[in-house]
Specification:
Shape: elongated
Oligomer: single chain
Order of helices and strands: EHEEEEEHEEEEEEEEHHHEEEEEEEEE
Number of strands: 23
CATH topology of the largest domain: Jelly Rolls
Helix content: under 10%
Mean pLDDT: 91
Radius of gyration: 21 Å
Largest sheet: 9 strands, antiparallel
Distance between the termini: 49 Å
Strand order of the largest sheet: 22-21-20-19-18-17-16-15-23
Number of domains: 2
CATH architecture of the largest domain: Sandwich
Strand content: 35-45%
């Protein structure tokens, strides 16, 4: 999608003064230093610079998580900080897409972050990263694909952060952005300018499906033992980097009223039903799914990894264990 602009303003804006007021009211909270990022020369430590994060929505509502999160056992939820920021909560409630991580990210004066890419971020992975500048100055810049941009406070922006990018603040005051990670939905895409959508390669856009509930009896009937392809639990942006190996012992169990994928004896991922027996991983998109077909005589599980229209699939035979008692 390199033919598209590196960034585009969306058709929504907000009250910059109200946002700045809430951000300043939270300045005494415990802002965490940003995690490490991967650049051209490998990982570099954000602890070296004044780059701080206050999470408003995170895995499990954990107020110490500065990262964007990923697949796991817990749902994304609001942190206690969001209860102190009603206008931010209003903005997020009106976002027409499922929320993943939401963070206030502050860049100190005179600070520049090294160039890097954000892994698994963009249309092909079903994840969109949006920015709303909250407190800014003319020296606060976003540079994507060597394009130097200053974004005005209050404007909603999409940036393609899967491309090489960095940020800098040559001003005298901290720059604060509200960074919103969401799943991609058709409703959210209506906020994009028409000329942008006209150039969008729709075959590579992974659109989120709404979760569909299952009855307890349905869940019990999906319990099984199944070998898991070694590549499936690995987490690399480049499928060519996956390390092939022998299958891992696995199972699908019911825990606390929901399905869980067990890897090598340990609960690893919650499973969210998106329809027709297909499940995405909790905290993640349909970039990675399992399709369960436990009907006789050949019960199978299809493990799928998508990047846009590209699909990699492994099929494994399963042994149903649908006794609700567990054994």
């Amino acid at each position: 999608m390199s033919g598209l602009p590196a960034a585009v303003p969306l058709l929504r804006s907000y009250d910059a003064a109200r946002m700045a007021g809430e951000a300043l009211a939270l300045r005494e909270a415990q802002w965490q230093v940003q995690q490490e990022y991967y650049g051209p020369d490998g990982f570099f430590g954000a602890r070296e610079i004044d780059w701080r994060v206050l999470p408003l929505h995170s895995p499990g509502g954990d107020q110490a998580r500065t990262d964007s999160g990923g697949a796991g056992l817990v749902e994304y939820a609001s942190t206690p900080f969001l209860r102190e920021a009603p206008y931010f909560a209003e903005i997020l409630a009106e976002m027409p897409a499922p929320l993943r991580s939401v963070r206030l990210i502050a860049l100190g004066p005179g600070v520049e972050v090294r160039e890097h890419r954000d892994e698994k971020c963009g249309y092909p992975w079903g994840v969109m990263r949006l920015h709303i500048p909250v407190i800014t100055n003319q020296g606060a810049k976003v540079i994507i694909d060597q394009q130097d941009m200053h974004w005005q406070a209050g404007q909603l922006w999409f940036g393609d952060f899967s491309r090489p990018h960095y940020v800098r603040n040559t001003g005298d005051e901290p720059r604060v952005h509200l960074v919103i990670d969401v799943q991609v939905t058709l409703e959210l895409l209506t906020l994009f300018p028409r000329e942008y959508l006209d150039e969008l390669p729709w075959a590579n856009v992974l659109i989120a499906r709404k979760p569909l509930p299952l009855r307890p009896a349905d869940l019990a009937g999906l319990r099984c033992k199944v070998p898991i392809p070694a590549e499936f639990p690995q987490w690399s942006e480049d499928e060519d980097e996956y390390q092939a190996g022998p299958d891992v012992d696995g199972a699908i169990e019911v825990l606390d009223g929901r399905l869980i994928l067990v890897v090598a004896g340990e609960p690893a991922f919650g499973l969210v039903h998106v329809g027709l027996g297909e499940f995405r991983l909790e905290g993640w998109t349909e970039e990675r799914t399992l399709h369960l077909d436990l009907s006789d005589p050949d019960p199978t599980v299809r493990f799928r990894v998508r990047t846009g229209h590209k699909l990699t699939e492994w099929i494994r035979s399963a042994a149903a264990t649908n006794d609700p008692a567990g054994d």
